[in-house]
Write a structure and sequence with these properties.
By secondary structure, the protein is an alpha/beta fold. The chain has a single domain, classed as Aldolase class I (TIM Barrel). The chain is 34% helix and 29% strand. An 8-stranded parallel beta barrel has the order 1-4-5-6-7-11-12-13, surrounded by 7 helices. A hairpin with a 5-residue loop joins strand 1 and strand 2. Helix 9 crosses helix 11. The radius of gyration is 17 Å and the shape is globular.
Length: 271
């Protein structure tokens, strides 16, 4: 039986100047612009036929604060599809509180890299299906990596970053993805800093490197500018799900348009 591929809208949430939660869209994790209200967008995508929905608190880790759980709860009240929440999750207690606020899954990046045992603790306490390990990857063209890919005629590896892409770790993405899967992660959420916000397409070499080396389902993120880019990441990298933000936020394409296009290309969709 062929599993259907998933289409997942994502919102990047931060606090505005008045301390209210707001959705922002940027390029390469920078130059953020106000995009809308998180609760209204959750309602929109729930009604639009999205398979899942992702809420990322993009500055919680960098600022050392807790995830905005009141906003998560308000979003969950409008969202009747699986909801993944990430940002600022560092402990088993954080996972518990985020799930209690209405999340179905938690996305963890910085907290898991700093203390990998958190992956096992979360999987054992709440089930692997709840634990999504997120990687914010960037290309490095040096000899410090473990797994290399050919990109535009050059050899590079992919480095895990933390705190919203602000700090490098010298950890190879593929090596970490394999470890996270071994520790019990139920899913991997692969973000590309190099592709983020460009609308030039997903980072196929990055996504393929992870998909080829890890049995755990992979969500491809960053760079989507059209339904054809989703087709590419499904057929060339074998991603299990495609995440997008700005093409949906700015109504360049609807979720239904994307799904029908992909269905016409022979990619299994839930329509």
């Amino acid at each position: 039986m062929t599993l259907t591929k998933r289409i997942i809208p994502c919102i990047d949430v931060d606090l505005d100047d008045d301390g209210n939660a707001a959705v922002y869209t940027g390029v390469n994790f920078e130059d953020l612009e106000y995009t809308g209200d998180p609760v209204e967008l959750a309602k929109k995508y729930n009604e639009a036929g999205a398979d899942e929905f992702v809420f990322l608190d993009i500055t919680a880790s960098a600022e050392g604060r807790e995830t905005m759980l009141e906003t998560v709860s308000a979003v969950a009240d409008e969202c009747f599809i699986p909801l993944t929440v990430g940002g600022g999750i560092r402990t088993k207690a954080d996972i518990k509180e985020t799930l209690r606020a209405g999340a179905d899954k938690v996305s963890i990046n910085t907290g898991a890299l700093e203390r990998p045992e958190l992956v096992e603790e979360g999987a054992e306490a709440f089930g692997s299906q709840c634990i999504v390990i997120s990687v914010d990857a960037r290309r490095r063209y040096d000899e410090a990596g473990e797994y290399y890919a050919e990109v535009d005629g050059e050899s590079c590896w992919f480095e895990c970053t933390v705190k919203g892409g602000r700090e490098g770790t010298d950890i190879d993405v593929v090596e970490w993805a394999r470890e996270a899967a071994d520790r019990g992660a139920g899913e991997l959420f692969v973000n590309s800093i190099d592709a983020d916000g460009t609308k030039d397409g997903y980072d196929i070499p990055l996504t393929k490197a992870v998909c080829d080396n890890v049995p755990t389902p992979v969500i491809a993120s960053s760079g989507c500018g059209s339904p054809a880019h989703m087709e590419e990441v499904f057929t060339e990298a074998n991603a299990d799900a495609a995440l997008a933000a700005s093409i949906f936020h700015f109504e360049e394409y609807s979720v239904d348009e994307v799904k029908r296009y992909l269905d016409e290309q022979g990619i299994p969709m839930r329509i």
